[in-house]
Design goal:
By secondary structure, this protein is mainly β. The strands form 2 sheets. Strands 2, 4, 5, 6, 9, 10 and 11 form a 7-stranded mixed β-sheet that branches. 27% of the residues are buried.
Length: 113
């Protein structure tokens, strides 16, 4: 059974850092495209970062987080991460990971002084 479980959210002051994790299981392929999204109340989910592990793949980011967020993977643990640095109040959202249209339950990130 496919499963994605996010963790690592919390409250942090502006300028702080958090690292989100997404542990995944039940998928048949070891190569994949996975994404982090975020959503605020009343708004659609916004893609934040993508990691593509196919040959020639790489990472990409939405403009608002480029240079501050880093998406990475641990191939042994079947986890992807989102390292979030220099956090701003507008980064406040529920963050979700996604693979092949399967979603985790989300983890809340709140950036506030």
């Amino acid at each position: 059974q496919v499963q994605l479980v996010e963790s690592g959210g919390g409250s942090v002051q502006p300028g702080g850092s958090l690292r989100l994790s997404c542990a995944f299981s039940g998928f048949s392929s070891s190569v994949f495209v996975m994404k982090w999204f975020r959503q605020t109340p009343g708004n659609e989910r916004e893609r934040v970062a993508t990691i593509n592990t196919f040959p020639g793949g790489g990472t990409s980011y939405t403009a608002s987080v480029k240079g501050r967020f880093i998406i990475s993977r641990d191939a042994v643990k079947n986890v992807i991460y989102l390292q979030m640095n220099s956090l701003k109040s507008e980064d406040t959202a529920v963050y979700y990971c996604e693979r092949d249209n399967h979603w985790g339950q989300g983890t809340q990130v709140t950036v506030s002084s």
